[in-house]
Amino acid sequence: MAPRGKAEAEASKSADGEIPFEAALERLEAVVASLESGEIELETALARFEEGVALVRRCGQQLEVAERRIETLVEEADGLVVGSFELGDEAGEDAF
């Protein structure tokens, strides 16, 4: 996956200024690949690490918002919340 430039990341921001989850995750993967390559200077590596930490936080916050939306939808559909939405340990495992 080719690293995305800042201009490309800016262009993919939504109307509220947030980078979409998928774009942030893609950029995070590029940052990790760059760090794992070991072919960048220390200062560049530190800057990329800081960017990666910010992206992890952003993705985590977006996932929390999505989780709350799912809980609300389940509550509205069932009239009550059976349990919190949690990702299963295995692929395909029912979360509720």
Q: From the alpha-carbon coordinates, what is the Rg to the nearest angstrom?
A: 17 Å
Regions with little confidence, pLDDT below 50 for 5+ residues = 90-96
What composes the largest sheet?
none
End-to-end separation: 35 Å
3D shape: elongated
Q: How big a fraction of the residues is strand?
A: under 5%
Mean pLDDT: 79
Number of strands: 0
Structural class label: mainly alpha
How many helices? 3
What are the secondary-structure elements, in order, as H or E? HHH
Query: How much helix, percentage-wise, in residues?
Result: 55-70%
Structure, briefly:
With 96 residues, this protein is mostly helical. It has helices spanning 6-11, 21-37, 42-78.
Explain this structure to me?
There is one protein chain. The protein has 96 residues and is mainly α. It has a domain at 6-63. The protein is built from three helices and no strands. Helix 2 (21-37) packs antiparallel against helix 3 (42-78). The longest helix has 37 residues, at 42-78. It is elongated, with a radius of gyration of 17 Å. 4% of the residues are buried.
What are the salient characteristics of this protein?
0% strand, mainly alpha, 96 residues
